[in-house]
Design a protein that fits this description.
about 240 residues; mainly alpha; 10 helices; about 0% strand
């Protein structure tokens, strides 16, 4: 990234980046935060990562990306794995947390497909900056209406979690993600993120003590296989 230009010359391109960021960073971040408040971390991650399904379908409609055999198999395995994982929530009645997490997935998908459609000729780091600024704007507006929601002093662990989220989860992860999105079809990039909820649930099990059930393990296995198939499949040219 040394020597790369981070300027976005056209006003229309800046508008596209901000509009995409309002969905991909702002909407996703706000709704996923609400989801974590009303359901378990593992379940929130699972619901949020229905995103690849929405991306693959929207990319087919709006970007004319072909649904190859490998991608359809990956989607089917993804849907099956998510159904297994979400079945306990469906039986108990879909909660506000699950709805918010699914809403975050749809917002993320809209931002991805919009950005791919806009074809903004900018460096991935510049794309990340504009997207995160849009997300920060949503967060600021949200805090103006709801307040910070913090009672009493903040301990060391929350600050460490915030630092990790800002540096590793945002400053490093977002430029890498936009580089991937620049190089791969939107559907393939989206399906590749199916690995994230698997690691998320493993982390919640280790850190928070949330124990996956045998059904969860089956769902994780299906999602993992779906991600591997999607990532190993050759990229197909976009049909016009």
């Amino acid at each position: 990234m040394i020597g790369a230009s981070l300027r976005v010359h056209k006003v229309s391109d800046r508008v596209h980046l901000i509009a995409s960021g309002l969905f991909a960073c702002g909407g996703f971040g706000a709704l996923s935060a609400i989801a974590i408040l009303y359901t378990s971390t593992g379940r929130a991650a699972i619901c949020a990562y229905t995103m690849p399904i929405w991306v693959a379908l929207a990319a087919r409609v709006f970007l004319k990306e072909s649904l190859t055999t490998a991608r359809m198999i990956s989607l089917a395995l993804c849907a099956g794995g998510l159904l297994v994982l979400l079945w306990p929530l469906i039986q108990a009645g879909v909660s506000l947390g699950a709805l918010a997490a699914i809403g975050s997935a749809i917002c993320w998908a809209i931002g991805i497909v919009y950005l791919k459609w806009a074809r903004v000729p900018a460096h991935p780091l510049a794309v990340a900056i504009y997207q995160l600024l849009a997300g920060a704007l949503v967060s600021i507006i949200g805090m103006m209406f709801t307040g910070l929601g913090v009672d009493g002093p903040i301990g060391v662990l929350p600050w460490f979690g915030l630092l990790y989220g800002v540096v590793a989860g945002t400053a490093i992860a977002y430029p890498l993600w936009f580089k991937v999105l620049d190089r791969l079809p939107a559907g393939t990039a989206g399906l590749g993120t199916l690995l994230v909820p698997v690691f998320g649930v493993i982390a919640s099990s280790i850190v928070l003590g949330e124990r996956p059930t045998p059904a969860d393990l089956i769902g994780f296995a299906l999602i993992l296989i779906a991600a591997v198939i999607a990532l190993r499949a050759p990229a197909q040219p976009i049909q016009t």
